[in-house]
Amino acid sequence: MMAAGGGAGSARSVAWGASALLVAALLLSAPSATEAYDSLDPNGNITIKWDVMQWTPDGYVAVVTMFNYQQFRHIQAPGWQLGWTWAKKEVIWSMVGAQTTEQGDCSKFKGNPPHCCKKDPTIVDLLPGTPYNMQIANCCKAGVINTFNQDPLNAASSFQISVGLAGTTNKTVKLPKNFTLKAPGPGYTCGRAMIVRPTKFFTNDGRRATQALMTWNVTCTYSQFLAQKTPTCCVSLSSFYNDTIVNCPTCSCGCQNNGTSPGSCVNENSPYLQSAIDGPGKWTGQPLVQCTSHMCPIRIHWHVKLNYKEYWRVKVTITNFNYRMNYTQWNLVIQHPNFNNITQLFSFNYKPLTPYGGRINDTAMFWGVKFYNDLLMQAGPLGNAQSELLLRKDSMAFTFDKGWAFPHRVYFNGDNCVMPPPDAYPWLPNASPLTKQPLMLPLLAFWIVLATFLAYA
Ligand SMILES: *[C@@H]1O[C@H](CO)[C@@H](O)[C@H](O)[C@H]1NC(C)=O
Ligand SMILES: *[C@@H]1O[C@H](CO)[C@@H](O)[C@H](O)[C@H]1NC(C)=O
Ligand SMILES: *[C@@H]1O[C@H](CO)[C@@H](O)[C@H](O)[C@H]1NC(C)=O
Ligand SMILES: *[C@@H]1O[C@H](CO)[C@@H](O)[C@H](O)[C@H]1NC(C)=O
Ligand SMILES: *[C@@H]1O[C@H](CO)[C@@H](O)[C@H](O)[C@H]1NC(C)=O
Ligand SMILES: *[C@@H]1O[C@H](CO)[C@@H](O)[C@H](O)[C@H]1NC(C)=O
Ligand SMILES: *[C@@H]1O[C@H](CO)[C@@H](O)[C@H](O)[C@H]1NC(C)=O
Ligand SMILES: *[C@@H]1O[C@H](CO)[C@@H](O)[C@H](O)[C@H]1NC(C)=O
Ligand SMILES: *[C@@H]1O[C@H](CO)[C@@H](O)[C@H](O)[C@H]1NC(C)=O
């Protein structure tokens, strides 16, 4: 930073080049392979809690609850799948509020067979509209779990399980092992079950507490690397001070390949549009995207719209290019240094996220307003949602130079979106990257180094 601020021209360009390289390297490595968790949500996890409510002659009845403690990653349709391996020869006599996907071999049992005899059962949620006698609180949402930030009442999912051929006291019960959580694809890794202090349940008036006979917890964390997903969104940029619209990088989410896989996308005005939408991928939920150079199902556009004396205004537009998906309860996470002073926001909900314990306040989560734009419709004329942000300038840092007005990171539904390379950002007229004082890039590099350091520390 010192060299960049005070040196001669050539020293400056060297410093600029070095910091640009550093920034580029760090930006490229941001969602890196080794990142076991997300630096914007370092404590994010899904905790699965088993509360033994009753011992039975051959086992126990437990209520299992999954809590989504992630700031901005939810579980969408077609929902979660929870699995584990029994420690002994346990069976599931019955379940309420969920079911196993397979019964397995119950031929040893005379009379009424168990619900499931598999050593490694897979559990799925029941659908909404399940008969009341098969429901318990927090069940039957087709495996969809929202975030606490967006909808705290729907951030957990529960079912009741009656286990047989198991231990019947807290000394003899064996904890299930090898938990797996699919959402529904890969990405989550679950730790070992650990016995914790028994949960206390309070009556509605709060005047009496009962408690579980025994409780154990399992924590699962998400890694974008494990999910091995191709990107699902990209970012495009524009500004009032430069006519250039910086589009999403070509092939951000895939390439149009007419030779080997025709039909990987469909044109907006194609006569075959409807038959493509109803094609074989319809029931598997396979995306069908509009043909674009980026091929992403979702594009986020950031437009620097207006410059006032003390404020500036940004318009953010989310466009859905997927003909087979209505995104319910979508969310957006954006990182920008001026987010410490969001003054006004139109037609989105908003919450600042301070992943570094409040020391850096540059990240915010946005989501739709209920019944207004919380449903992002499938590709087409209605497939977009937009908002405007009014930001108060910080006289020390604010500049339209060097791409400062553009976001550093953007996530849609928890997935990191592909950004244009920093050297393609719209410039201020008459500004080339080498002629002006390079104040912001080293500062940006500094923040990124600090953030990376904090993330790994
Ligand atoms: C899971 O998230 C909760 C809530 O943020 C937190 O209290 C807990 O420490 C986290 N657990 C782990 C193992 O990170
Ligand atoms: C098991 O239950 C006994 C009382 O029945 C209690 O004292 C003990 O702490 C319990 N152990 C665990 C691990 O919950
Ligand atoms: C744990 O589960 C995974 C996937 O279900 C399986 O591949 C692995 O062998 C299991 N490990 C043990 C020790 O059961
Ligand atoms: C176990 O999970 C529950 C629910 O998330 C939580 O309230 C409790 O603090 C956890 N216990 C421990 C010891 O982590
Ligand atoms: C694929 O076809 C579309 C129109 O059908 C065309 O615009 C596009 O350039 C083609 N892409 C390649 C890689 O040939
Ligand atoms: C999206 O919602 C609209 C209106 O509710 C419905 O007509 C359409 O079929 C839905 N699309 C998908 C892919 O579910
Ligand atoms: C927001 O801007 C106002 C006016 O410049 C300033 O007084 C305030 O401290 C800023 N807030 C933060 C969190 O930087
Ligand atoms: C972060 O900035 C927002 C305004 O954008 C403000 O409302 C919030 O209080 C700030 N949070 C912290 C921890 O400074
Ligand atoms: C606008 O920005 C682009 C970089 O994206 C640059 O090549 C162009 O020269 C800029 N236009 C003006 C008028 O400065």
Automatic annotation (TrEMBL):
Residues 232-426 form the COBRA C-terminal domain. Keywords: Glycoprotein, Membrane, Signal, Transmembrane, Transmembrane helix. One of its GO terms (cellular component) is plasma membrane. The keyword Transmembrane applies. It comes from the Eukaryota. The chain crosses the membrane at residues 439-456. InterPro entries: COB_C, COBRA_pln. Pfam families: COB_C, COBRA. Residues 1-36 form the signal peptide. One of its GO terms (biological process) is plant-type cell wall cellulose biosynthetic process. Belongs to the COBRA family. PANTHER family: COBRA-LIKE PROTEIN 4, PROTEIN COBRA. This is COBRA-like protein. It comes from Oryza meridionalis. The lineage of its organism: Eukaryota, Viridiplantae, Streptophyta, Embryophyta, Tracheophyta.
